[in-house]
Amino acid sequence: MDFKKAKTYLDKINHLYEGMKDDEQISPIEKKLMLDYISSLYDSFWYETSPAPVEKVSKRKKEKVKATTKRVATPSPAPTPTPVAPPPAPEPEPVVVAPVVIEPEPVVEIVATPPPPAPEPVVEEAPKPRKFDFEVPKPRKSASSGFNKAYNELFDQSAGGTKDLSQKIGQRPLANLKRAWGVADKFQVINELFGKNASIFDESIDALNNMSSMDEARAYIESNLVDTHGWMTEAKIETAKRFIKTIRRRYLQK
After folding, report:
1. Segment holding 17, helix H or strand E
2. Among the four residues 14, 77, 101, 121, which has the most C-beta atoms within 10 Å?
3. Is 1 helix (H, G, I), strand (E, B) or coil?
4. Is the pTM of this model over 0.85?
């Protein structure tokens, strides 16, 4: 049994154990190494090793070897070989250089390309007038005949007494109804008077912009908007009055 070898493997096992005992998870390499050390320690205890037998040499044999050594003659040194001169190198054959013939570059004729023809002028068609789904009513002869008297409350914009600044501003002519409302006012008008439909609002403003008098505008409003969107209700009548007052400014004379 080899105690020295066993002690070496014991030290390795203890050293590896000190490094592994604080780890929560042991890697496969450390497991394999520990098993190899344990297996080697097991082998060092299980298998016994004996020293190789030492052959004893007798006194007579020693003397015989010495006598044989004395009789062996020292060999003479080998003769030095005579150097042989190498054969002369053959003379190189002359190199014949062929003359280089420079061929002239071909002359490329440059043909002038005619300029492309000028593009034909594009004639833009004039925009066609916008068509609406509704019919614009014809102007009435007088404001008193033909209008629905039930709607007079909406269209009666007369106010007596002294006019303040807001009333004076409200009587200024408007060239374009699309610019008559701010963002908040326009949002309120669309929600309350046009059923939250911005397309109907835009179509109505386009139609009213193209009319020549307030009589035409009133006929259009009575026919297409008042009953359809319920402007005579208590919740909408005040907003409708303000809307019609703004529409009236489109037809004031400058």
Report:
1. helix 3-20
2. 14
3. coil
4. no
